UniProtKB/TrEMBL annotation, chain A:
Protein name: AP complex subunit beta
Stored InterPro entries: AP_beta, AP_complex_bsu_1_2_4, ARM-like, ARM-type_fold, Armadillo, B-adaptin_app_sub_C, Clathrin/coatomer_adapt-like_N, Clathrin_a/b/g-adaptin_app_Ig
Gene3D superfamilies linked: 2.60.40.1150, Leucine-rich Repeat Variant, TATA-Binding Protein
Membrane topology: Peripheral membrane protein
Domain Clathrin adaptor alpha/beta/gamma-adaptin appendage Ig-like subdomain: 735-842
Compartments it resides in: Endomembrane system
Signal peptide stretch: none
Native species: Cyclopterus lumpus
Keywords carried by this UniProt record: Acetylation, Membrane, Protein transport, Transport
Record's GO cellular component terms: clathrin adaptor complex; cytoplasmic vesicle; endomembrane system
Major location category of this protein: membrane
Beta-adaptin appendage C-terminal subdomain domain ranges (all copies): 851-962
Region (Disordered): 580-620
GO biological process: detection of mechanical stimulus involved in sensory perception; endocytosis; hair cell differentiation; inner ear development; intracellular protein transport; neuromast development; regulation of protein localization to plasma membrane
Automatic annotation (TrEMBL), chain B:
Gene3D superfamilies assigned: 3.30.450.60, Mu homology domain, subdomain B
Family membership: Belongs to the adaptor complexes medium subunit family.
Function: Part of the AP-3 complex, an adaptor-related complex which is not clathrin-associated. The complex is associated with the Golgi region as well as more peripheral structures. It facilitates the budding of vesicles from the Golgi membrane and may be directly involved in trafficking to lysosomes.
One BP annotation, GO: vesicle-mediated transport
CDD domains documented for this protein: AP3_Mu_N
One Gene Ontology cellular component annotation held by this UniProt entry: clathrin adaptor complex
Protein name: AP-3 complex subunit mu-1
Tagged with keyword Transferase: no
Domain MHD stretches: 176-417
Residues annotated as signal peptide: none
Pfam name, any one: Clat_adaptor_s
Bilayer-crossing regions: 419-437
Keywords of the record: Cytoplasmic vesicle, Golgi apparatus, Membrane, Protein transport, Transmembrane, Transmembrane helix, Transport
Length: 972, 440
């Protein structure tokens, strides 16, 4: 009943709305609004409410406007009824009514209404009253959001630009805000071209406008590049007072301007030092605000201390964690404490960290223990104390503390080899309690690395081996490596162990990484133990504090984005902001003397390319050919490799005939690619002359059956000219497969495939209704994925899907969605909704969908890049049963945006040098070798991301590459 | 800019939503609920969340979440500040910021949200301006409204909106002209087990309550302004005057406002008003432990410490406490493992003491986490930093106002670290025996 009092039934409201009494009308509208806000559908009252609009009572008018804004979209024809009143109100003598009318009209997102909005808006932009002008400025942004073309055609953008010079600071601030918002969807429009005159106007308005206006203006100022250091200083001087503002967003925006512009000041300038001193107190003050503000402040301070550690070097204590800080504040504080740790304050920091390590919150305790390890790595003088602190913590026997401590001690060993190994005994005592993969992997690494000092290393490792298949990949990989290390160090006692692990890794595992590593070790050990020793036991580069730091160019960009979402996520805006197709990369301007001009970074890099020595492909190719020969032809040296030490003697015996078996292996592998061989291929039959010493054979050459099973979608199809599916571009187009079986989705079956057509990636689907009832309201959404695939529009299924009906739908995809690395890389998780439920499935897209049309690299650039890419990033594999000649293959590949840059022929073998570019800007280079008469091609792939990340392409054995690339991006 | 706002209570109901651009389905909040599930406490939900198409920026006030949805790159602090401002406005209008009050005043809430933001851009956020546009509901006024039929929405242009002093409305009239200032200081400190200050700083704020007729121009000066090296001001304060003369010169908003915040940094020595002698120990064997706490005055500047309260977060294994307090009462909140000892006034002649036995869960491993001890206190008539106002002058108006300054010092995040000791059972036997006899 109370509900009925608050939200009376529609018919009652209708009667009250049509009452003659003003007061009753108003109360009725209020009740309508109250019902609307709790989600009741009161749209049926539209005509009655709109009838109340023509009133001189401002409150009633505002209430009607609230209603209109809510329902106009669903009742556009009714909304037209309101237009006349709006237009009339825009002429009202009271500026408040004029502003209110234009403001509300802009909020009604109905096309027919927006047409009528143009004239009133034009007048309001030039209204004599600044309150109306500032409201109209925002209205331009609204209109732009609804109909950008209209705004441009009507010339509103120019009027808006003029408002930057308005005499009223609030108008200026709103004009800047509106232009900034519009500019975000118009990256190259040059809407806010800043020159010294406009800058001066902005700085004047900055002093007088509201706090929010100050934020807009400061953010806009941050995009300006001063002509010289004098201008830079004068802007800084006028911005500095904002650091004392009570609004933290004003403070942080001011910090951004100062951090950016101070880069241009000479470091020996007195003012530079003054400015540095002025920056510390406001940053500290931000930390006494509400926790949410603190969090954002801390994320930004994290960037600031990396760029300019001197600003906060004396303020360590403010980052000490308080008991009642929320966990997200605690974790950020901890991170900054480490960044600020130095020899001077390390004792205090360590004492704090030790306290934290005994707190309640598990995440926090873990991070505190890690922090102790990072301190050891950062401040050399403290390493010993850190290690002893960690040992104390291990003594507590608290399970997760022990595990974290072991993980960080491994890092300390890598930073200071041969210094703290005395603690290994203590670590080994805790072996049994380790149940987290990372800790187990760390412990195994330690055992393998120091195998010669641990008497029972073999027993320890063997104990892990028992449950090998239940371990996670990182533990398996580490165990494999550790046992190989152990074998190379103590070959006599451990051959059985190493053999066991190699066979576990190569024969019984489905994990390509593990298998590859297993094969590599196996081959290494059986061919050249000396090399194996050099490779496996090579001196490792020391790790340093820098691994934790943000990469400098990214840091520079992020400094220009202080206070933004980018600064919270520590990612460049281009990486995640939706619809920011053209986000310009901001850079910190260099230190300029007066009158010096900035050298464009583009010129710089272009010059770098042209200066590179003009090499020609053949000379480059020879080298590559030689590299390949290692694998393709039998080694030229015959006889056993040189024996250098007693230890290798032992190893050699075990590996007898290693070289030969390698040769044998090669033949065998090739054969197995050509035709599936029975899996019972005996290792003893391997290759000519391959005799095994002590039962230690070459890796079994036969792949698990699944390897040879024809994979229907793949490069094979790419080459298959006759491949049935007709397509306009002749591009590779895999057939549809069932993604979501009807059983799992209450009768909805979805099969689909991915196609690239005229530069647009499309997801083509067949939706079949196998249920008994009609399906409607389809929608689709993707989880974050490796390449930012997102639907570029809604799922166009307009008609309901009746039982047993099937419908085809094509969904255009964009690649500007949020990015998250998936496993496997080309995995896409999809949620499909209909009137029945939401269903989830995942599918894999062929990587070739992501090859963009402009993936043809300049010849010169190709050469330079090919040379630049380290061999680590290279991988090789074969494509079987392809009967095209090289030209046909090249054409075929070109239709999938794999471009041939150059071709040469050596000894009847055609070598195609190719490039392709992924949608996220990563280039991949390839060499394709085609031997006439041999249906098997060899391909070498290389890649590196040119700006910030390195991409390692790792092929999964011999499966066709287009579907089964396992691209692993290690973002550095 | 800010696209939408959702108000959500602790049990996860969305009870109000407002969209300033197109309507966004409330299913976007699912990402927030997911994060809330993961968090131990409601306060621990991260304030910025990324979803496939939007960002969710949340503040937690009282028992409510103010969740805003943004679609483009917007400074998160801007959004967070704004959300807190919305909560402040509700508080200001309705006396509290709770779900029931918001639901009762839902139309006013909508009117306010509509005035505060236009297309996601802040429009009117100053309390003075808003009150001219939408009058706060009072029982008296609703009676008057019904009698006279007058509206509670202003129909003139709010005067503050465009003047260079947007925070003050014109034509303010009072019969009693008064200006009061409260200097409130909070001590944030962490002290280690031996009582040494690990970290201490003072967060100060000057809250003003000014009801003056016309356009008064005030100047507030300090005896020792040099203490203030890190300050943030209300927009009304003339920054240039502060830089050159170290006085606060301003035309005040009408009513209550925060004039300035300041921060006396950790580099100046901070007076610590009380000391704590504490010992908490757990026996190596046997499911119990011992607690003994005494509090005494340290640097109180000659004033009395009042409203003294001790809160101890106990290790998880502590089941109950059997203690004796020489002053005040204690309670042990078992679910949260918090021991609260409410002492009241601190008498330097007879120091309050709390001691007795803690019983632990039988068979539980000995506590891993150290207890932490937090202090609450209040000292009237003194700002612990030593800050003093020397005088307040008024220009621009002829009348003589009542003036007053009050000082108070409180504990902010004031924390003593404890280290639980472990003793062999036998040594403590006599202690237990002692307690056995004293208790019965």
């Amino acid at each position: 009943t109370t509900d009925n009092q608050n939200h009376p039934p529609i018919f009652e409201l209708k009667a009250e709305l049509n009452s003659d009494k003003k007061e009753k009308k108003k109360e009725a509208v209020k009740k309508v609004i109250a019902s609307m806000t709790v989600g009741k559908d009161v749209s049926a009252l539209f005509p009655d409410v709109v009838n109340c609009m023509q009133t001189d009572n401002l409150e009633l008018k505002k209430l009607v406007y609230l209603y209109l804004m809510n329902y106009a979209k669903s009742q556009p024809d009714m909304a037209i009824m309101a237009v006349n009143t709006f237009v009339k109100d825009c002429e009202d003598p009271n500026p408040l009514i004029r502003a209110l009318a234009v403001r509300t009209m802009g909020c009604i997102r109905v096309d027919k209404i927006t047409e009528y909005l143009c004239e009133p808006l034009r007048k309001c932009l030039k209204d004599e009253d600044p309150y109306v002008r500032k409201t109209a400025a925002v209205c331009v942004a609204k209109l732009h959001d609804i109909n950008a073309q209209l705004v441009e055609d009507q010339g509103f953008l120019d009027t808006l630009k003029d408002l930057i010079s308005d005499s009223n600071p609030m108008v200026v601030a709103n004009a800047v805000a509106a232009l900034s918002e519009i500019a975000e969807s118009h990256p190259n429009s040059n809407l806010l071209d800043l020159n010294p005159q406009t800058i001066n106007k902005l700085l004047t308005a900055l002093n007088e406008c509201t706090e929010w206006g100050q934020i807009f203006i400061l953010d806009c100022l941050a995009n300006y590049t001063p002509r010289d250091d004098r201008e830079s200083q004068s802007i800084c001087e006028r911005v500095t007072p904002r650091l004392s503002h009570a609004n933290s967003a004003v403070v942080l925006s001011a910090v951004k301007v100062l951090m950016k512009f101070m880069e241009m000041l000479p470091k020996d300038l007195d003012y530079y030092g003054t400015l540095l001193k002025k920056l510390a107190p406001p940053l500290v003050t931000l930390l006494s605000a509400e926790p949410e503000l603190q969090y954002v402040a801390l994320r930004n301070i994290n960037l600031i201390v990396q760029r300019r550690p001197e600003i906060l070097k004396h303020e360590m204590k403010v980052f000490f964690v308080k008991y009642n800080d929320p966990i997200y504040v605690k974790l950020e504080k901890l991170d900054i404490m480490i960044r600020l740790a130095s020899q001077a304050n390390i004792a205090q920091v360590l004492a704090e960290l030790k306290e934290y390590a005994t707190e309640v919150d598990v995440d926090f305790v873990r991070k505190a223990v890690r922090a102790i390890g990072r301190c050891a790595i950062k401040v050399e003088q403290s390493a010993e104390r850190c290690v002893s602190t960690l040992l104390d913590l291990i003594q507590t026997k608290v399970n997760y503390v022990v595990q974290e401590a072991i993980v960080v001690i491994k890092d300390i060993f890598r930073k200071y080899p041969n210094k703290y190994e005395s603690v290994i005994a203590t670590l080994c005592e805790n072996l049994d309690s380790l149940d987290e993969p990372e800790a187990r992997a760390a412990m195994i690494w330690i055992v393998g690395e120091y195998a010669e000092r641990i008497d029972n290393a073999d027993e320890l490792l063997e104990s892990f081996l028992e449950g090998f298949h239940d371990e996670s990949t990182q533990v398996q990989l580490q165990l494999l490596t550790a046992i190989v290390k152990l074998f190379l160090k103590k070959p006599t006692e451990t051959q059985e162990l190493v053999q066991q692990v190699l066979s576990l890794a190569t024969q019984d595992s489905d994990n390509p990484d593990l298998r590859d590593r297993g094969y590599i070790y196996w081959r290494l050990l059986s061919t050249d133990p000396v090399a194996a020793k050099e490779v496996v036991l090579a001196e490792k580069p020391l790790i340093s504090e820098e691994t934790d730091l943000i990469e400098p160019t990214l840091l520079e960009e992020l400094i220009c984005h202080i206070g933004t979402l980018a600064s919270v996520y520590h990612k460049p805006p281009s990486a995640f902001v939706e619809g920011s197709r053209g986000v310009q990369h901001k850079r910190i301007p260099g230190n300029l003397g007066s009158g010096e001009s900035v050298e464009s970074p583009d010129n710089g890099s272009a010059a770098g390319v042209t200066e590179a020595p003009p090499a020609v492909i053949p000379s480059q190719g020879d080298l590559l050919g030689d590299l390949l020969n290692l694998d393709l032809t039998p080694p030229t040296t015959t006889g056993p490799p040189p024996i250098s030490s007693g230890m290798q003697m032992g190893a050699m015996d075990l590996l007898g005939g290693g070289l030969d078996s390698l040769v044998g292996l090669r033949h065998n592998t090739e054969r197995s690619f050509r035709s599936p061989s029975p899996p019972d291929y005996s290792p003893t039959e391997v290759g000519p002359g391959g005799h095994m010493g002590a039962g230690f054979g070459a890796p079994p050459a036969v792949m698990p059956a699944s390897f040879n099973a024809p994979v229907s979608v793949g490069l094979d199809d790419l080459f298959d000219l006759g491949g049935g599916v007709g397509m306009p571009m002749g591009a590779f187009n895999p057939p549809k497969t069932v993604w979501l079986p009807a059983m799992k989705a209450k009768g909805l079956e979805i099969s689909g495939t991915f196609v690239r057509r005229a530069g647009v990636i499309q997801m083509e689907m067949n939706l079949t209704n196998k249920a008994m009832s009609v399906m409607t309201d389809f929608a689709i959404q993707f989880n974050r994925n490796s390449f930012g695939l997102a639907s570029a529009g809604p799922l166009q299924i307009l008609t309901p899907l009746s039982p047993n009906q099937s419908i085809e739908a094509a969904l255009p995809l964009s690649t500007v969605g949020p990015v998250m690395k998936m496993e496997p890389l080309n995995n896409l998780q999809v949620a499909v909704k209909n009137n029945i439920d939401v269903f989830y499935f995942s599918c894999q897209y062929p990587i070739s969908m992501l090859f963009v049309e402009d993936g043809k690299m300049e010849r010169q650039v190709f050469l330079a890049t090919w040379k630049d890419i380290p061999n680590d990033n290279e991988s090789q594999f074969q494509i079987k049963d392809c009967h095209l000649n090289s030209d046909a293959a090249s054409n075929k590949l070109q239709s999938s945006n794999i471009f041939t840059i150059a071709k040469r022929t050596v000894e009847g073998q055609d070598m195609l040098y190719q490039s392709m570019k992924l949608t996220n800007g990563i280039w991949v280079l390839a060499e394709l070798r085609v031997q006439a008469g041999n249906p098997n091609y060899t391909t070498i792939l290389k890649s590196k991301q040119r700006i910030t990340s390195l991409i390692i392409i790792h092929t999964v054995s011999e499966r066709p590459f287009c579907t089964n690339w396992n691209l692993i991006c290690y973002i550095l | 800019m800010i696209h939408s706002l959702f108000l959500i209570n602790h049990s996860g109901d969305i009870f109000l939503e407002k969209h300033w651009k197109s309507v966004i389905s409330h299913s976007v909040c699912d990402y927030f609920f997911e994060a809330k599930e993961k968090a131990v406490d409601p306060e621990d939900v991260p304030p910025v969340l990324q979803t496939p198409h939007h960002y969710l920026i949340t503040v937690h006030r009282g028992k409510l979440f103010f969740l805003s949805v943004v679609q483009t790159e917007v400074p998160p602090l801007f959004v967070i500040e704004f959300l807190h401002r919305v909560a402040d406005t509700f508080q200001d209008y309705f006396g509290e910021c709770s779900e029931s009050v918001i639901k009762d005043n839902v139309v006013t809430v909508y009117e306010l949200l509509e005035e505060m933001l236009d297309n996601g851009f802040p429009l009117a956020t100053e309390s003075n301006v808003l009150k001219e546009l939408i009058r706060p509901p009072t029982i008296l006024r609703s009676v008057v409204n019904t009698l006279t039929g007058s509206s509670n929405v202003g129909d003139t242009l709010p005067t503050g909106q465009l003047s260079t002093i947007p925070w003050r409305r014109a034509d303010v009239k009072y019969t009693n002209n008064e200006a009061y200032f409260d200097v409130i200081e909070e001590i944030d400190a962490i002290l280690d087990k031996s009582g040494t200050t690990v970290f201490a700083e003072i967060q100060g704020v000057i809250e003003a309550s000014v009801r003056l007729t016309g356009m008064p121009d005030l100047t507030l000066s300090f005896m020792n302004p040099r203490l203030l090296d890190d300050v943030s001001f209300h927009p009304c304060v003339r920054f240039k005057r502060w830089e050159s003369e170290r006085t606060l010169s301003f035309i005040p908003p009408d009513g209550n406002f925060t004039l300035m915040n300041y921060h006396v940094s950790s580099q100046n020595p901070v007076a610590i008003p009380v000391y704590v002698k504490q010992s908490i120990s757990f026996f190596e064997s046997g499911p119990c432990g011992r607690l003994d706490i005494t509090i005494g005055p340290k640097q109180t500047m000659g004033k009395t410490v009042e409203a003294l309260m001790v809160k101890i977060h106990m290790p998880k294994a502590v089941l109950s406490a059997n203690l004796t307090a020489t002053q005040g009462n204690y309670t042990y909140d078992l679910p949260n493992k918090v021991l609260v000892w409410d002492i009241g006034k601190l008498n330097p002649q007879k120091l309050p003491n709390l001691k007795g036995i803690l019983s632990l869960q039988a068979g539980a491993p000995k506590p891993e986490d150290n207890p932490s001890l937090n202090i609450d206190l209040r000292i009237q008539q003194v700002a612990i930093s030593g800050l003093k106002v020397s005088r307040l002058e008024m220009f621009g108006e002829k009348y003589k106002p009542f003036k007053g300054v009050k000082y108070v010092t409180k504990a902010g995040k004031f924390q003593f670290k404890c280290a639980a000791l472990y003793e062999p059972f036998l040594l403590s036997f006599w202690t237990i025996l002692f307690f056995y006899f004293t208790t019965f």
